[in-house]
Amino acid sequence: MHIESGLGMRKVEAAMVLCAGFGTRLLPLTRDMAKPMLPVGDKPVILHILDRVRLAVPSRIVINVHYRAGDFDKLEGEQGLAISRETELLGTAGGLAHAASMLGKGDVIVWNGDILSDLDPRDLVFAHTSGEASATLAVRPRPAGEGNVGIAADGRIVRLRDQRFGDEARAGEFLGVHVIGQELRNRLVKKGCAIGDVYIPAIDRGERLEAYEVFASYCDIGSLASYLDANLAWLAAHSLREWRAKGAIVKAPIDGSVVGARACIEAPLRRSVAWPGAHVPPGEPLDNVVVTPRSVVRIRTLSKL
User: Fold this and answer.
1) 236-267 pLDDT, tens per residue?
2) Rounded to 5 degrees, what angle do the CA atoms 253, 282, 287 make?
3) Rounded distance, CA 20 to CA 112, Å?
4) Would strands 289-291 and 273-274 be described as parallel, antiparallel, or unpaired?
5) Fewer CB in a 10 Å sphere around the end CB: N or C, the chain?
6) pTM above 0.85, yes or no
7) Would you say the C-alpha torsion 139, 144, 149, 150 has a positive or negative sign?
């Protein structure tokens, strides 16, 4: 299903941002900070996501936390969130199940805590509430047979990952944003994956899951290279060549770079990120690096931007 932006608004009362993962592929950055708290442009990933989620005006927003749970504590008061704390990692389905009482009854918008996109959740909600699907997944179109989602001619999902359940007319890439209905929420597993342990079995039972097809920007901050990409994309989206936060001390060129508050830059940076409080001492120029207060992380795979 594809719906042009602005066609209507139907209410979903709750949203959940999934923030409990370890962020292993982002080491060593995630030794110092949980992945959704990594800065992209002018603020952490989680705050960019909340800006998008709030467009749908949910009454309740819940985040689940496990690894470095204390990193999120201040958000509870500052952002008016409920925090679902997991003593063990429960997975995407288990996290939703564990937070059931905080989310309340009804459909829930779910947004992965490492996904940046300009997707408008109001349109996803409209697509879901206008149909009869148990869940609706935001999907960026791809040629048939590609991506991780296969779509029938009527918009029904007939392939997830490598599991096929019908004839595929077109395909797409799941954006990590979806709406799950109450009936499917009632069958969530206590520990496991929403795709593998809930959605694929539901399709196999004959339930209707739909694809909401949208040409939205999308960045999965799952690797060091994609983290750098996200910052460069933020600059491009704001028509900026470089950006420095208020309070940053910049004594050298920072071409194509993002420099956080209280950072001190004394050697040239190019296509790089300096975290708040980072220090780049005088020396040779640095390209494609992330500078934290404790280390300089070189990005071996060059950005695609």
Assistant:
1) 999 999 999 999 999 999 999 999 999 999 99
2) 50
3) 10
4) parallel
5) C
6) yes
7) positive
